[in-house]
Design goal:
Elements lengths: L16 H23 L29 E6 L4 E6 L2 H16 L8 E2 L20 E4 L14 H13 L4 E3 L10 E4 L6 H14 L14 H13 L13
Antiparallel strand pairs: 1-2, 3-4, 4-6, 5-6
């Protein structure tokens, strides 16, 4: 057994060399950590989501309280979505019905219309505040992600946009993209919004017309949709399914 006194040193009564060395190593470690922390670049905090301050949404329609909107059933799906009354609801419901019939059956949680939250990641998302925007499967097609739709689904989307004559815009054509997003593209006073909505209302009362009675893959419709997309500045340079 080693002599316990051999571990003692002139460092002071009751203090062993082992303790001195340990203490010295601890001090060196602390100094090294302090140096590392000081040398590390500062990590920026994530940016807060901006709050929309205006009385109108980005497309020029008035911001609405929930009381000034209505819930509308999407034919065939059993689902409802809250939208501005009148022409915006007619146009966006037409989009939802065609999506349900031609792209995929809508399920609970797939639709978002009017919202009272003013937190928007992009200005175009403020259109939900006026009840003039609708998101379809937002969880599957989030902001900033493109290429989520099959080419056959894009054919249907392009046909819908062409059919509505520019009154509805699709977020897949935006920068940054949001493929779940559809919005009223024209100002409240634009006559085309009312004219196209009147046409849709007529289809809704006439058998064999409108959503559920459309073949987006018919050659003449493919040609019309491709031509319309080529004229639309938002769609330029994007992957637009060509006519057959």
């Amino acid at each position: 057994m080693p002599d316990q006194k051999s571990e003692m040193d002139v460092t002071g009564p009751g203090m062993s060399r082992r303790r001195v060395m340990t203490g010295g190593a601890g001090a060196l470690t602390a100094a090294a950590l302090a140096s590392t922390v000081a040398a590390s670049p500062a990590i920026a905090a994530p940016e807060a989501t901006p709050e929309w301050q205006k009385g109108s949404s980005a497309n020029g329609w008035r911001v609405l309280t929930e009381a000034k909107t209505e819930e509308y059933l999407v034919e065939g799906s059993g689902l409802a979505v809250r939208l501005a009354t009148g022409d915006p609801a007619v146009l966006l419901l037409h989009v939802a019905r065609r999506y349900h019939y031609e792209i995929g059956s809508l399920r609970a949680g797939d639709l978002r219309g009017h919202t009272a939250s003013r937190l928007v990641a992009q200005p175009f998302e403020s259109n939900h505040l006026s009840g003039t925007a609708m998101a379809i499967r937002e969880h599957a097609y989030p902001l900033g992600v493109s290429g989520g739709l099959y080419r056959t689904e894009l054919v249907v989307i392009r046909d819908i946009l062409s059919e509505l004559g520019g009154t509805v815009a699709w977020g897949g054509d935006f920068t940054p993209p949001k493929e779940s997003h559809f919005e009223i593209a024209l100002a409240p006073t634009h006559p085309k919004t009312k004219n196209v909505a009147r046409t849709i209302r007529g289809w809704n009362t006439e058998p064999g017309k409108g959503a559920g009675a459309t073949d987006a893959f018919a050659p003449e419709r493919r040609t019309r949709a491709a031509t319309f997309a080529q004229r639309d500045p938002r769609a330029r340079g994007l992957d637009v399914p060509s006519s057959p």
